[in-house]
Design a protein that fits this description.
Largest sheet of chain A: 6 strands, mixed
Structural class of chain B: mainly alpha
Radius of gyration of chain A: 23 Å
CATH superfamily of the largest domain in chain A: P-loop containing nucleotide triphosphate hydrolases
Helix content of chain A: 25-40%
CATH class of the largest domain in chain A: Alpha Beta
Order of helices and strands of chain A: EEEHEHEHHHEHEHEEHEEEHEH
Distance between the termini of chain A: 35 Å
Helix content of chain B: over 70%
Radius of gyration of chain B: 19 Å
Number of domains of chain B: 1
Structural class of chain A: alpha/beta
Shape of chain B: globular
Number of helices of chain B: 14
Oligomer: heterodimer
Number of strands of chain A: 13
CATH architecture of the largest domain in chain A: 3-Layer(aba) Sandwich
Distance between the termini of chain B: 31 Å
Largest sheet of chain B: none
Strand content of chain A: 25-35%
Number of helices of chain A: 10
CATH topology of the largest domain in chain A: Rossmann fold
Strand content of chain B: under 5%
Number of strands of chain B: 0
């Protein structure tokens, strides 16, 4: 890799815990202004990658750079906002005092900034940290990750424990970060949580990066389930053989089908009739990823056969 | 003061207050008992000797002079219970520097702050140092006030010398707990090392005085460099204290280097 502008860059990054594989041969570059979704089931190596990038653990082999520096350099860590996957907050200290401590060590944040974020996420900072609920701990974690406007945000399972409204607010915060040209690496075990804000997603499985995909391209290729209800029965022939159309079911006045890629031919065919009601499910990117997974698994099973 | 040291002291605050109050109550109570008994030193002496036969008496430092002010103060503050209490406190605080937050998971976020790992250990240790110093200074003042009130007649300089030794022993064991935590990150391991070393060290130093077969091991006991010079009777055993301080410095250096090399929280 010669691209020196990448915010996160790894080459052959490998981590073994004794004999147990944590991560093997990760080569990845995340560009400035990009939101990168890092996906995989629990135990796949997401947290290992993230902890390597933050110098919590040390690689067995390979190299990496974060914001153009070695993660061992403490100065670079002031420019990163980090949310641990399992954020532990304990004791009688008030959440606000803890946030102030973190802000001080990172070089200071205006008091207004913490309040503003607390308001957005509806977090109560006057509570002792040991008494915070899981969701509120996660909010405190998000506030500390965002409060110093870091150039790079590394968020490990950021949406876990958040209720849907707060999740939406969080996603809005991520979009704002991208708008200002800053970079986000966020992990999740569910694609649906990250697909709306991610530019690219990488899938890690059993310690290996098995795919990196552009989300827009993925959506273009995605499969949609579509349903039309008309005011009168329609002939099957009107829809049969349309490009990209599969699983066609015509029952009286209703038509159900699956469509790959652009829905345009289907829309034009339906326009000949009077549509009463229409349902188009969100493209299921998860399904596409599951094929990657199962391919990898098959490959794996084969190798061990 | 470095931010992390300040934070460490805040975390220690409750423990520091608790241990200070507890130790002051314990010391104050025992010293005031002396005031009521000092007019009949023979009774005090005889009852003490009857209560602690043979080897137990050796553990308590002999107690032959418990009827005197200096002997009494030595027995209650600087012989067994005083060091035991302060060493326990030091081990707990030392454990809370690295091992405990590592195992509970709170250390991870601290580690990702723009603080060098070496600095992290050092600043935590300074917190431990200041915490123990606070307890030591307040208990010293209480002992000085109580012993003068009870008319023990021990020179202030000697109390200061003995108390400094007590502080150095506690700081040593607190640093052991911190260093084991920095090296392996396991609270239980750190407590076990401190517990075994402290108990064995104390036994070897006190019983070993009269038993040749273990006396060779006395140099391994941190208590040797505190008790052997009898600071409450003879004043500053400067060389011994330098050994304690030097050993603590070596442990701290080990802690810094060990923590700088390893994976945290795995």
């Amino acid at each position: 890799m010669t691209d020196m502008t990448a915010v996160v860059e790894t080459e052959g990054l490998t981590k073994f815990y004794g004999k147990r594989r944590g991560l093997e041969d990760l080569t990845l570059a995340i560009q400035p202004g990009e939101v990168f979704g890092y996906l995989g089931p629990n135990g796949a190596g997401k947290t290992t990658t993230i902890r390597l990038l933050l110098d919590v653990i040390r690689p067995t082999s390979g190299r990496m750079s974060v914001l153009g520096a070695d993660p061992r350099d403490p100065k670079v860590r002031a420019r990163i906002g980090y949310l641990p996957g399992e954020l532990e907050l304990e004791g009688k200290e008030k959440a606000r005092d803890y946030l102030t401590f973190l802000a001080d060590v990172r070089g200071g944040v205006s008091r207004g900034r913490i309040d503003e974020l607390a308001e957005r996420l509806e977090a109560d900072l006057s509570v002792a940290m040991g008494k915070l609920s899981k969701g509120n701990k996660q909010k405190v974690g998000l506030i500390q990750a965002f409060m110093h406007d870091p150039e790079l945000l590394i968020l490990d399972e950021p949406t876990s424990g958040l209720d849907p409204l707060v999740q939406q607010e969080f996603l809005a915060m991520v979009r704002e970060v991208r708008t200002t040209g800053r970079t986000v690496l966020m992990s999740s075990h569910v694609l649906a949580e990250v697909e709306h804000v991610s530019d690219r997603v990488g899938i890690v499985r059993a310690g290996r990066l098995v795919a990196v995909e552009d989300v827009a391209a993925l959506r273009e290729r995605a499969v949609r389930k579509v349903e039309f209800h008309f005011d009168a029965p329609v002939p099957r022939e009107a829809f049969e053989g349309l490009p990209g159309l599969r699983d066609l079911v015509v029952e009286g006045a209703s038509v159900r089908c699956t469509i790959d890629g652009r829905p345009d031919p289907l829309i034009k065919a339906a326009a000949k009739f009077t549509t009463v009601h229409m349902v188009s499910a969100e493209p299921d990117l998860e399904e596409i990823f599951l094929t990657y997974y199962s391919d990898e698994e098959r490959h794996h099973a084969h190798a061990h056969a | 003061m470095p931010t992390l040291t300040l934070k460490t002291l805040k975390e220690y605050r409750r423990a520091i207050i608790g241990w200070t109050v507890g130790m002051c109550a314990f010391l104050g109570m025992y010293i005031s008992i002396y005031a009521s008994m000092k007019d009949s030193p023979d009774i005090l002496s005889r009852s003490a000797l009857a209560k602690y036969p043979g080897a137990l008496r050796d553990l308590m430092g002999g107690m032959l002079d418990i009827g005197t002010g200096v002997g009494y103060l030595q027995a209650i503050a600087y012989q067994m219970l005083g060091p035991l209490l302060l060493v326990m406190c030091a081990a707990i605080l030392g454990n809370r520097a690295i091992a405990a937050p590592e195992q509970s998971g709170t250390l991870e976020l601290t580690l990702t702050l723009p603080i060098d790992r070496k600095q992290l250990v050092l600043q935590r240790w300074v917190g431990l140092f200041l915490g123990l110093l606070t307890i030591a200074v307040i208990t010293l003042l209480v002992i000085l006030a109580a012993q003068s009130g009870a008319g023990m007649g021990v020179p202030v300089g000697h109390v200061l010398a003995a108390h400094t030794g007590l502080f150095l022993v506690a700081l040593f064991f607190g640093t052991v707990a911190l260093a084991v935590g920095a090296a392996v990150g396991r609270r239980q391991t750190a407590l076990t090392v401190v517990g075994v070393w402290a108990v064995a060290g104390y036994v070897v130093e006190t019983l070993g005085r009269n038993a040749d077969w273990i006396s060779w091991a006395r140099w391994l006991s941190p208590f040797h460099y505190f008790l052997d010079g009898r600071p409450l009777y003879a004043g500053w055993p400067v060389g011994d204290y330098l050994v304690l301080a030097g050993a603590t410095a070596v442990l701290l250096l080990t802690a810094v280097l060990a923590f700088d090399r390893r994976d945290v929280g795995v």
